[in-house]
Protein backbone atom coordinates (compact mmCIF):
# COMPACT_ATOMS: atom_id res chain seq x y z
CA UNK A 1 0.00 0.00 0.00
CA UNK A 2 2.86 2.34 0.80
CA UNK A 3 4.35 1.75 -2.64
CA UNK A 4 1.07 2.66 -4.33
CA UNK A 5 0.91 5.91 -2.38
CA UNK A 6 4.53 6.80 -3.21
CA UNK A 7 4.06 6.04 -6.91
CA UNK A 8 0.89 8.13 -7.07
CA UNK A 9 2.52 10.99 -5.24
CA UNK A 10 5.58 10.80 -7.48
CA UNK A 11 3.38 10.95 -10.58
CA UNK A 12 1.66 14.08 -9.31
CA UNK A 13 4.99 15.71 -8.47
CA UNK A 14 6.50 14.74 -11.84
CA UNK A 15 3.57 15.86 -13.95
CA UNK A 16 3.12 19.15 -12.11
CA UNK A 17 6.79 20.03 -12.11
CA UNK A 18 7.20 19.20 -15.81
CA UNK A 19 4.28 21.44 -16.71
CA UNK A 20 5.64 24.28 -14.58
CA UNK A 21 9.14 23.86 -16.04
CA UNK A 22 7.72 23.86 -19.57
CA UNK A 23 5.84 27.09 -18.86
CA UNK A 24 8.93 28.79 -17.41
CA UNK A 25 11.11 27.49 -20.24
CA UNK A 26 8.63 28.89 -22.74
CA UNK A 27 8.75 32.31 -21.13
CA UNK A 28 12.52 32.60 -20.67
CA UNK A 29 13.77 30.27 -23.45
CA UNK A 30 16.19 28.71 -20.99
CA UNK A 31 16.86 25.01 -20.41
CA UNK A 32 17.65 25.59 -16.73
CA UNK A 33 14.10 24.85 -15.42
CA UNK A 34 14.16 21.49 -17.21
CA UNK A 35 17.52 20.62 -15.69
CA UNK A 36 16.37 21.63 -12.21
CA UNK A 37 13.21 19.55 -12.55
CA UNK A 38 15.31 16.60 -13.71
CA UNK A 39 17.48 16.82 -10.59
CA UNK A 40 14.43 17.27 -8.36
CA UNK A 41 12.71 14.23 -9.84
CA UNK A 42 15.88 12.15 -9.56
CA UNK A 43 16.07 13.01 -5.86
CA UNK A 44 12.36 12.33 -5.22
CA UNK A 45 12.31 9.03 -7.13
CA UNK A 46 15.52 7.78 -5.53
CA UNK A 47 14.30 8.63 -2.04
CA UNK A 48 10.97 6.89 -2.69
CA UNK A 49 12.55 3.80 -4.19
CA UNK A 50 14.95 3.43 -1.26
CA UNK A 51 12.01 3.70 1.13
CA UNK A 52 10.17 0.90 -0.71
CA UNK A 53 13.30 -1.26 -0.84
CA UNK A 54 13.91 -0.84 2.90
CA UNK A 55 10.29 -1.69 3.70
CA UNK A 56 10.37 -4.78 1.49
CA UNK A 57 13.66 -5.95 3.04
CA UNK A 58 12.11 -5.53 6.46
CA UNK A 59 9.10 -7.61 5.39
CA UNK A 60 11.36 -10.29 3.93
CA UNK A 61 13.34 -10.53 7.16
CA UNK A 62 10.15 -10.83 9.21
CA UNK A 63 8.87 -13.63 6.97
CA UNK A 64 12.10 -15.58 7.29
CA UNK A 65 11.96 -15.68 11.11
* Average pLDDT level: 90
Largest sheet features: none
Order of helices and strands: HH
Helix content: over 70%
Contiguous uncertain segments of 5+ residues:
none
Gross geometry: elongated
Structural class of the helix and strand makeup?
mainly alpha
Distance between the termini: 23 Å
How many domains in all?
Answer: 1
Query: Could you give the count of β-strands?
Result: 0
Rg (C-alpha, Å): 16 Å
The share of residues in extended strands comes to: under 5%
Number of helices: 2
Walk me through the structure:
The protein is mostly helical. The protein contains 2 helices and no strands. Helix 1 runs antiparallel to helix 2 (32-64). The mean pLDDT is 90.
Outline the secondary-structure elements.
Elements: H1 2-28, H2 32-64
Helix pairs in contact: 1-2
Nutshell version of this structure?
The protein is mostly helical and 65 residues long.
Main attributes?
2 helices; mainly alpha; single chain; elongated; 65 residues
Amino acid sequence: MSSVWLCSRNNIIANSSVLIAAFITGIYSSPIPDVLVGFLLTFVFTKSSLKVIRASQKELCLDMN
